[in-house]
Records
---
Amino acid sequence: MNKGFFRVVSPREFLALLGRFPPLPTETVDLDTAHGRFLARDVVAAEDLPPLSRAAMDGYAVRAADLFGAGEANPAYLDCVMDVAIGSLPEAPLPPGFCARIVTGGMLPDGADAVVMVEHTLDMGAGTVEFRKFAAPGDHVMHRGEDARAGQAALPAGRRLRAQEIGLLAALGVTRIDVRQAPRVAVLSTGDELVPAEAAPPPGCIRDVNTHALSCLLRDFGAVPLPLGLVPDDQASIHDALARAVARSDAVLVSGGSSVGARDFTLASLAALPDSEILAHGVAVSPGKPTILARVGRKPVIGLPGQVASAQVVMTLFGKPLVEHLAGNPQALTRTPFTYPATLARNLASKPGREDHVRVRLEPRPGDIPLAHPVLGRSGLLKTLLDADGLITIEADTEGLEAGTRVEVRPL
């Protein structure tokens, strides 16, 4: 056991420490339950998709060379030799100088290399079609194997399965898929001042917010929350609750009891668990500086600040990357988070040596990027979260940002 008290690290170092924990094992699930999971291995296509070239528009299948130079002032004329119904193979190849009527999704006859939209044609009767637009090879055609090639990886390991990926797997006939297990994350809230949300708090007490808010965030991140209730502010109770949480879960979040104080027992309770190691006690960010990272066996435990805004900001910065890393996303700890641009509405001061994450409200501006208005307030106030659209970052080596600075907003 390495207690490692007061080991404050940078945000980059904290993310690197999260990489010490291995991704979860693999399981095979039905396609209908795979949404949001991460692929454990490449999915290799057993067939071409589409299996044959198909029309992407209603119109006429043609040989593009037969319409060279065609236009409104110089239309071309081709005889229609067949109708291609959806769900059936063309009856014959398309001869040069002819066309075939086709609907969206219909299979192109051999010889055809383009489709002309029906809007650019006129049925002249007696089987003759007027074309008022030329065609280039490939126009309005979904080519054989364009979505997936037989024998090649259709989806790589580590890909998150959104509706788009689920659709591709269904089109390939893949109904059972190997994915990483969804992390089961235990949630504990510590503090004698906390009462359940349904209770009427006596003087000096407050309702438990973090259990509910953190559980929602975990679901958003793709984890399975395991809310384990409130824990009194004494070392024996916290120690026992942590031991039970570690035994039941893949990772543990415990809010409260991470700062310096006589009644803060989380750190000591973690250090007393078998095969435990305190990896960090503090991260150079605001809000969230007293955040703890510990290892118990092979499982991560994050000690979050008890203040509601701080806890949710830390979850955005570090909780989401941890969950996605455990769930099998190989880029979770290294990729640049998604942001969108805005212009800072006012001067914003900062203390050098720490990375400040400031909540901002966005004001849309027609024809320009939005204005970002800082939402300032104590980290125990929910209003600063309710009024905010995202976070902007002030780097540790700066003393603030001036009004008019272009900033990147990380959604909350």
---
Amino acid sequence: MALITHVNVCNTENEIYCCLRNKIVKLDAQQKEQFCSGCKMFAGDADEHGIGVSCVWEDVRVVSNPHIAVDPLEEFIQNQIRQVPPEGPASFLYTTEW
């Protein structure tokens, strides 16, 4: 799976979707200091005007690279969908090899 740059643009409430916390957060100084600064996915400000942040992570969805996220709620909802492998999540339980 390829690494995708996610450009998280703030909405009118200065909110973005945070993959690390898996929730919608207010992008303020506290968020940047307590979470973004130590996050391995953090890739910097989205631009010099502070309209959001860029984050890099493997995305199971089919999205462009970079992926521009302008609606934090939609981004949150889309990131709650998980793909199950074709062989099923517990196929390892039924193997006969020890």
